[in-house]
């Protein structure tokens, strides 16, 4: 990977290094404790089934945070993220085993322009998939580029 400086940077079409994350029930417990979201659909198969879910599902915000990790890992500085948004389109079903659910993230630079303060801004489209299906829609981050803050893929 090549460091990106103010004069050099990613171009439209630059792909971010992919990220694969296994989400386990233990991760859901830790996330529930950190976030305060103890909704039983994130830990009880009985409750998840009773509300029509195929099983215990990962917290949407956990999935969103993992997708954000793809971008922050690439840009090298979490403070460089200027905006980030997603739509939740499908749940990530987390089995009660040691393997968990494999969620795969990819990203691609779709635009590079100038921000309101003259900084270079890259727009990154993110794809998150589980079991071959997209779980986040309209996942887009805008990141400020400069002085070695990003890597071209």
From TrEMBL:
Q: Name one Pfam family in it.
A: MaoC_dehydratas
One of the entry's Gene Ontology molecular-function terms is: fatty acid synthase activity
Query: Ranges for the MaoC-like domain?
Result: 19-103
Any single GO BP term: fatty acid biosynthetic process
The highest taxon in the source lineage is Bacteria
The Gene Ontology CC terms held by the record are: fatty acid synthase complex
Tell me the protein family, please: Belongs to the enoyl-CoA hydratase/isomerase family.
What protein am I looking at? Answer: MaoC dehydratase-like protein
Native organism is Pseudonocardia kunmingensis
């Amino acid at each position: 990977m090549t460091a990106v400086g103010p004069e050099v940077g990613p171009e439209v079409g630059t792909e971010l290094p992919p990220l694969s994350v296994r989400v386990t029930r233990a991760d859901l417990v830790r996330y529930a404790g950190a976030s305060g979201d103890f909704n039983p659909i994130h830990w009880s198969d009985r409750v998840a089934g009773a509300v029509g879910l195929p099983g215990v599902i990962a917290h949407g915000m956990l999935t969103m945070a993992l997708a954000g990790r793809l971008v922050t890992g690439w840009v090298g500085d979490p403070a460089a993220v200027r905006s980030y948004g997603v739509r939740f389109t499908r749940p990530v079903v987390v089995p009660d085993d040691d393997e968990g659910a494999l969620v795969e993230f990819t990203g691609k630079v779709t635009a590079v322009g100038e921000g309101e303060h003259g900084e270079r801004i890259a727009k990154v489209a993110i794809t998150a998939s589980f079991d071959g299906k997209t779980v986040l829609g309209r996942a887009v981050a805008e990141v400020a580029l400069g002085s070695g803050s990003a890597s071209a893929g």
